[in-house]
Amino acid sequence: MSVATPPASAEQNNRKRLGAFLRTRRENLDPNRLGLPRMRHRRTPGLRREEVAQLADVGVTWYTWLEQGRDINASPKTLTAIAAALQCNDVETQHLFYLAGHVLPSTRVAAACCKIAEHNQRMLDAIQLPAIIETPRFDIIGYNAAWCALIGVDLATIAPEDRNCIWLAFNHPQWRSVMRDWDEVMPQMVAMFRGQMGEHLGDPHWENYLARLLNSSDEFAQTWQRYELGKVENRVKRFYREEVGEITLRQNNWWSASRHGDRLLVYVPDDSHSAAGLQHLMSR
After folding, report:
1. 134: how many CB neighbours lie within 10 A of its CB?
2. Fewer CB within a 10 Å sphere, N or C end of the chain?
3. Cα 254 from chain centroid (whole Å)
4. Are residues 121 and 260 in the same domain?
5. Does the keyword Translocase apply (predicted)?
6. How many other CB atoms sit within 10 Å of the CB of residue 13?
7. Are both 142 and 245 inside the same structural domain?
8. Domain count, the chain
9. Which domain holds residue 61?
10. Do 96 and 174 share a domain, yes or no?
């Protein structure tokens, strides 16, 4: 009588995926571009395992086992060295860490999230409408003068660690006072944040910020406990400024690269009154 083979665990499957990823990445690299010595006869495309091991400063046998999906452990330091040897970009490095059962160090994630390219800032400045660029965690990494005029807050005076749409909505009186339909908008923001965080569970960069939000606002904490999930969508939003009254704008989301990367938010007036009101705020 045959004995059924038990199904592979998620950890075993990830080890196999890790090996396949490493092998594919290695075979797609050009040895000449990496400055490796030319060899007359290469039996396999790309780099050899010995070359990757040398570049990452690890043992050849150990690296071979890692590619074969064996049950061995790789430290974050070693994974970083392997990612560098294989010329992995940020997304590929994050994938490598995930398959190996680690979280990419928060310092690296934070560094990637807190910078805006100069050409992106020029694009923001050229847009004649309120616009910001924010990360999946809702950190504002870029903004223009029109956005500051709309909200009535000069973001240059806000500490970089506080330039976050959710943090400001719950902790900055002026920011909150401008937002109409608070009882509808606030749960949507919290639900979107929870939906985005699902892909970053265990990441200290996200977990620490969640703790900060929970400790700063009982209202946020109570809404968080409702466990509602939301996704980023284009929406119609209402704002209020004493100088012009209520204005209605359409929020349009544009992703810079992948669907889960930084996004550009542009706010377009929904009617002539809102267009005139926004123009008045921007001209002051």
Report:
1. 20
2. N
3. 14
4. yes
5. no
6. 13
7. yes
8. 2
9. 10-102
10. no
CATH number at residue 182: 3.30.450.180
Q: Which domain CATH number covers 30?
A: 1.10.260.40
For residue 130, give both structure tokens: 């309120």
Asked if 132 and 246 sit in the same domain, the reply is yes
Chain centroid to CA 88: 17
159-207: pLDDT as tens digits? 999 999 999 999 999 999 999 999 999 999 999 999 888 877 777 888 8
Please state the pTM of the whole predicted model.
0.63
For residue 136, with 0-12 CB atoms within 10 Å meaning exposed, 13-18 middle and 19 or more buried, which class applies?
buried
With beta carbons less than 8 A apart as the criterion, state whether 178 and 240 touch.
yes
Same structural domain, 90 and 55 = yes
234 neighbors 251 (Cβ within 8 angstroms): yes
The Cβ of residue 85 has, within 10 Å, a number of other Cβ atoms equal to: 22
Identity at 254, one-letter amino acid code: W
Q: What is the DSSP letter of 44?
A: S
H or E element at residue 231: none
Specify the amino acid at residue 108: R
CA dist 148 and 131 (Å) reads: 9
171 part of a folded domain: yes
The pair of structure tokens assigned to 4 is: 């059924």
3-state DSSP assignment of residue 58: coil
Tell me which of 70, 102, 134 is where a domain ends: 102
Pair type for strands 235-241 and 245-255 = antiparallel
Q: DSSP assignment, residue 240?
A: E
pLDDT of the residue at 112: 46
Average pLDDT over residues 197-218: 87
Helices (H), ranges, the chain: 10-27, 49-56, 60-67, 76-85, 90-99, 106-113, 118-126, 145-151, 165-171, 173-178, 182-197, 204-216, 218-224, 272-283
